[in-house]
Amino acid sequence: MTSAGPPSAIDRAGLDALFSALERRGYTLVGPTVRDRAIMLQEIDSTAELPAGWTDVQEGGTYRLARRDDEALFGHNAGPNSWKSFLFPSELRVWTARRTAEGGLAVSEDPAPPPRYAFIGVRSCDLHAIAVQDRVFLEGGYVDHDYRQRSEGAFVVAVNCGQAAATCFCVSMDTGPKASAGFDLALTEVLEDGRHGFVVEIGSELGAEVLAEVAHRGVAEPGELQAAARAVENAAAGQTRSLDTTGIRDLLARNREHPRWDEVADRCLSCGNCTMVCPTCFCHTVEDVTDLAGEEASKERLWDSCFTLDHSYIHGGSVHGSVKSRYRQWMTHKLATWIDQFGSSGCVGCGRCIAWCPVAIDITEEAAAIRATDLVAEAERRADADD
């Protein structure tokens, strides 16, 4: 995707018109809305369902909604679910076999065609997460056909962040807060000097076609562009967490027996929350299911987690039998061996795993603790060598 021309602008009514244009083209809209005391991603019909005037307050093991002093539609951060839920659903029936009246079997191999989604409000960190999952499911020798249908048919409306949660660290991962690629249209919400509108950047030819159906100003005003830039700068400056990725692959590889793994295992519940909310985790299992009468059987794909004993089970037992080994597997894969496997980090700095861990385990804190003692050990090794 490439940008086409200078940024334009739409007002709140223009956003309604954008939604209508997408619906006319047959898209099912998915966007943020308030549900179950959180800002969740789900199917929506209009801008009236967006979380106007709501934000979220996040910290380690903490998430709660709070009221803003304005009517911002996207004045919140990453919620508990991600776009992974729609591109790589948690449950998927792969095929079904039924007995026929003649005593044979009728097999339906493909699930029903998925909807054509228009994703509304995709943050930069999640755009990078989608790109990571694209590499997992679309590249290499094996392509996931259901994922390909869902991703190729999707229209992406990104939203640049105007604030940071206390759990965000996308700046240190070079994944945000401004969207740079992977979108059809990108919005920056502007709420200054009585304005409530959106600066719009075009990221694809399809994005340009859709925007042409919406009343908009061809070029945003200088004041709007400045306000949009300030919003993104505020989001970057507001991040209080960071993760030093310098040499992190080798750092974790040489510290597989670090005592910090035992310390985190004493706290970790092995609940798998971090893997469920992570926008890049892709572990899954396949189960065979049959009805009680034996007339129908199906094969179903379900999300799985490397924190379960069954995930690493082979004949004779589980490879990762302890909480220590399961947490170490998750973190070293996410930050280190993912690079060997897919050419990038598996972490996009969204901070979901920090907020939704019941005991507030913080991946940035764990990595920093290992790095700190590794630096001390390296200094001691150099001192011994000099002697």
Walk me through what this model shows.
This protein is of the alpha+beta class and 387 residues long. It folds into two domains: 8-237, no CATH class; 248-386, no CATH class. It is 35% helix and 22% strand. The strands form four sheets. Strands 1-11-10-9-8-2-3 form a seven-stranded mixed β-sheet, with helices on both faces. The mean pLDDT is 93.
Summarize the structure.
With 387 residues, this protein is α+β, with helices and mostly antiparallel strands. It folds into two domains: 8-237, no CATH class; 248-386, no CATH class. The protein has helices at residues 12-24, 84-87, 124-138, 145-152, 170-173, 205-212, 222-237, 248-253, 259-267, 273-277, 323-342, 352-355, 363-386, and strands spanning 8-11, 28-35, 38-43, 54-59, 62-67, 91-99, 105-108, 117-122, 155-159, 185-190, 197-202, 284-290, 296-303, 313-314, 317-318.
- Secondary-structure element series: EHEEEEHEEEHHEHEEHHHHHEEEEHHH
The level of helicity is 25-40%
Q: Summarize model confidence as the mean pLDDT.
A: 93
Number of helices: 13
Alpha-carbon Rg, integer: 23 Å
Quaternary state of this entry equals single chain
Distance between the termini: 57 Å
Largest sheet: 7 strands, mixed
Low-pLDDT stretches are: none
Shape call: globular
